[in-house]
């Protein structure tokens, strides 16, 4: 159980650390189009991201998939730029149109999972259960994402429901800010 706790903490810090700004921004912009009443859909959304993240993290740790880290570090902010841009051009927030976010979360989770693979591979000690360690990491990651999404949903409730900021303007404000930060990251990481 000690391994699980260690890797849970590692997964938690992977999303909650300021060093994980790219992951925070992705989760933020992905969930910015939702309101507090949509919390169930958002939980499914972050779970889709975790599944994608887990698949490539596992494949990388088991040496099945190897992508140059320079490209991974560049592609991660590109996923954020794309997601923010799709929010900027979204005029409607119907459940049918928001379903695209599940695909974005899953596919872009695959790219984000590659970002931590080398570190995790290095940390795994001989004799440790790789499956149990990956499980602990992913549960910690999921828990951290749920906290981030909770903050985003509470802020959307505050601005949209209480302060009566139009939903579209809230989404534009958040998405434009994240777009600018992610574009800067992408340009700085260009291989």
Automatic annotation (TrEMBL):
Keyword Methyltransferase: no
Keyword terms: Membrane, Transmembrane, Transmembrane helix
UniProt keyword Flavoprotein, yes or no: no
Pfam families: HupE_UreJ_2
InterPro entries: Put_HupE_UreJ (IPR032809)
Chain ranges passing through the membrane: 20-36, 43-65, 71-89, 101-123, 135-158, 170-187
Coiled-coil regions, chain positions: none
Protein name per its UniProtKB record: HupE/UreJ family protein
Organism: Flaviaesturariibacter flavus
